[in-house]
Amino acid sequence: MVEDRKLAVLRAIVEDYVSTEEPVGSKSLVDRHQLGVSPATVRNDMAALEEEGFITQPHTSAGRIPTDKGYRMFVDRLSAVKPLTAAERRAIATLLEGAIDLDDVVNRSVRLLAQLTRQVAIVQYPTLSRSTVRHVEVVDLGNARLLVVLILSTGRVEQRVVELPAELDEEHTGEIRGRLNRTVVGERLVDASARLVLLPDEFDPAQRGVVAVVVAALLEAMSDHRSTERVAVGGTANLARFGDGFDLAIRPMLEALEEHVVLLKLLGEASSSSTVTVRIGHEGPFEELASTSVVATGYGPGDEALATLGIVGPTRMDYPGTMAAVRAVARYVSRILDEG
Amino acid sequence: MVEDRKLAVLRAIVEDYVSTEEPVGSKSLVDRHQLGVSPATVRNDMAALEEEGFITQPHTSAGRIPTDKGYRMFVDRLSAVKPLTAAERRAIATLLEGAIDLDDVVNRSVRLLAQLTRQVAIVQYPTLSRSTVRHVEVVDLGNARLLVVLILSTGRVEQRVVELPAELDEEHTGEIRGRLNRTVVGERLVDASARLVLLPDEFDPAQRGVVAVVVAALLEAMSDHRSTERVAVGGTANLARFGDGFDLAIRPMLEALEEHVVLLKLLGEASSSSTVTVRIGHEGPFEELASTSVVATGYGPGDEALATLGIVGPTRMDYPGTMAAVRAVARYVSRILDEG
DNA sequence: CTTGGCACTCGGATCACGGGAGTGCCAGAC
DNA sequence: GTCTGGCACTCCCGTGATCCGAGTGCCAAG
Question: What local confidence, expressed as pLDDT, does residue B188 receive?
Fold first, then answer.
């Protein structure tokens, strides 16, 4: 009973602080919410909440603001995911339906997410690891150079130009192309890689060198770090809304946004699950970003989470709304990938 | 004589203001520079310079700061391009030598430029329009789908997947591939496009539909706006150094950085020439960016400027150093493209 | 357990004030 | 003519001093 009201007070504090951006006191709390008790009672509850570490005062005789622990409690136990409006759903659907290829899907998603949440959005490109090989193409460019193209089931296309030890004739490239495709088409990348490694030995010694070079390029393309680490970022202008500890938080944030490796670490383990995960303040891996939270989720066709998308914003954010937006976008994108 | 000293004073004001970020007064001017005259004399000159619109006072009884017109004069007539240090040259050379493909060149360039100038760097991907076709590849993906790959002399690769009205056999794809290549290889894009349009008519009616679809895809790839409009941005964290009118300037800047079309407009006509151009404050096309300057230049293999690169920063910047860095990077990148 | 009352604290806005940097102008020196 | 030193003036900015109010903690009574 009393415990319930304390949590209601915590929820009210979080909500008010998120919307007003100012420390919230007992008086304004009872004004804005129907708590059915007096400010004095609320004060007692607040003292208890502070004792337990859920809220804190910036200085004596100021209102209270939630701690990271307070936000955590709010997210875990005090908030219901806020359903999107019909208009928002429609906006998501129509915007994403129009996408023409994978790049476009990712770009549209990141814009959409930034717009919906008014935060900085991050979308990781679907990783290659679980997709399968659709086709391999080998093209003679002349001058002992080959173009090797790898086409994957997700629609991603990787290409590499390789230098050969010697010129190659049409017949041989055809043979290599054919055997490559018979070896890997339809395979998952891990299996395809395993088979490719053995392939050069099946050719006669004269061609082995050439095949080895091509295989090396394909292997490299399959395990390509650049593509698995690729991310799209949008809504950086929303950083300008930070307002409060502006330049304190914005600098490390901008730096992080330039380093895709850092961003991927930020999105973190969210990719493994397809539920929305929230990392609040210091819970994240970077000390400098202690005043920012990450809301992320995995996405991908079917049940598989091929990649991660999410947003980064100040710990003081509208978690229910943000989580709803992230989840909704992830679901729509997943559906699109399913169809493509 | 007197005129000369006035200009020397203007130069000194610009230099001091750039380095100290504070309005500069007559006293500190004579202290920091060997002008050989007294503060009173300098004051007279400053009054004249203000009269002519080169400098202004933020408020009465404060020092002077350069106006856009003052910076313009400084850039045009008062500054020598500051040569880079040997270390900087070496850094540019070694960093860019290691690039493995066009994307990598662009990415490295933008990082380099951001680092050298400590500003926000922008590099436009080389435009397709002046490059030539190196090879066209057509790959049957099954299910009446073809992959069309366009490889250009700049190293750019564009690919499109097209849906055919009907399944196609190996022989026909081979024929189409051959005739496509005979038609366009070595041609400039404009010429290639012109020839392609006529190509379907040369086939017999049964194949004409298929060829038309492939040609359409190629034409689209050749005139692809997405690739001509692609830009890479780096060093956004440097925005955090703006310091002065921080949030005033940073917001529109971040917004501009998200809109590649806007960025291209910012870089502007610089692409036509291969000399470094400077756009100062209000000279640029955007009212909101009146306190930022753009230093840009065209670059590309040989004498042709295929694209533009440059930096955006506060009007209060080190123009000689920045111009030198931009020019140096453009030259090195051009050389790399020449070799590739 | 709740509530009204009350004394207390402290941050932030406001204001007055003085120092200092800078200016403009003028009269005299070169 | 040109430069210079002197001087009065302006006004920004930092420093205290003051005051107000929101908010707190605690206590005694309901």
Answer: 84
Distance CA A93, CA A335 (A): 10
Separation CA A110–CA A128 (nearest Å)? 19
Would you say the C-alpha torsion B153, B159, B163, B169 has a positive or negative sign? positive
What is the Cα–Cα distance from B89 to B91, expressed in whole angstroms?
5
Q: What is the pLDDT of residue A143?
A: 73
pLDDT digits (tens, 9 = 90+) for A108-145: 999 999 999 999 999 998 866 667 888 888 877 767 88
Per-residue b/e over B269-285, b at no fewer than 16 CB within 10 Å? ebbeebebbbbbbebbe
Å from the A20 CA to the D11 C1': 37
Taken in order B224, B228, B234, B237, the sign of the CA dihedral is negative
Percentage of chain A lying above the pLDDT 70 cut: 91
Contact A147 B137 (CB under 8 A): yes
How many CA atoms within 13 Å lie on the side-chain side of A72?
Answer: 12
* Smallest CA–C1' distance to C23, residue: B61
Tell me the one-letter amino acid at A96.
L
Short-list B311, B323, B333, B336, CA closest to B84: B323
Name the nt closest to A62 by C-alpha to C1'. D23
CB contact under 8 A, B247 and A239: no
Which helix (H) or strand (E) segment is B312 a member of?
Answer: strand B307-314
For B68, B111, B249, the CA distances from A28, given in Å and listed in that order, are: 50, 50, 35
Asked whether the CA dihedral A44, A47, A53, A59 is positive or negative, the reply is: positive
Give B212: exposed, middle or buried? Use CB within 10 Å, 0-12, 13-18, 19+.
middle
Q: How far is B162 from chain A (nearest CA, A)?
A: 12
Q: Which positions 58-87 of B are in contact with A (Cβ < 8 Å)?
A: none
CB A305 within 8 A of CB A323: no
Max distance between CA atoms of chain A, in angstroms, equals: 90
Q: Show Cβ contacts of residue A235 under 8 Å, excluding neighbours closer than 6 positions.
A: A110, A111, A113, A114, A115, A117, A118, A119, A120, A121, A311, B258
The whole-angstrom separation of Cα B274 and Cα B308 is 9
Angle of CA points B244, B246, B249, to nearest 5°? 110
**What digits encode the pLDDT tens for the residues A278-291?**
999 999 889 999 98
Q: How far is the CA of B60 from the C1' of C17 (A)?
A: 20
CB-count exposure of residue A241 (10 Å: 0-12, 13-18, 19+): middle
Residue ranges of chain B whose pLDDT lies below 50:
none
For residue A149, what are the contacts with CB-CB under 8 A and spacing of at least 6? A135, A136, A137, A138, A139, A157, A158, A159, B137, B139, B147, B149, B159
Q: Which residue in this structure is represented by tokens 């050719």? A: A203
What distance, in Å, lies between the first and last C-alpha atoms of chain B? 52
- Residue A299 burial class via C-beta count within 10 angstroms: exposed 0-12, middle 13-18, buried 19 and up: buried
User: Coil, helix or strand for A302?
Assistant: coil
Residue A122 CA to residue A105 CA, distance in Å, equals 13
Taking the alpha carbons at both ends of chain A, their separation in whole angstroms is: 52
**What b/e readout covers A269-295, taking b as 16+ CB neighbours within 10 angstroms?**
ebbeebebbbbbbebbeeeebebbbbb
Query: Does the beta-carbon distance from B139 to A141 stay under 8 Å?
Result: no
DSSP bridge partners of B38: none
Task: Find, among B105, B122, B103, the residue nearest to B113 by Cα.
Answer: B122
Query: What is the pairing mode between strands A133-142 and A277-279?
Result: unpaired
Q: Which amino acid is at B263?
A: L
Taking the C1' atom of every nucleotide in all shown strands and the CA of B37, the nearest one is D3
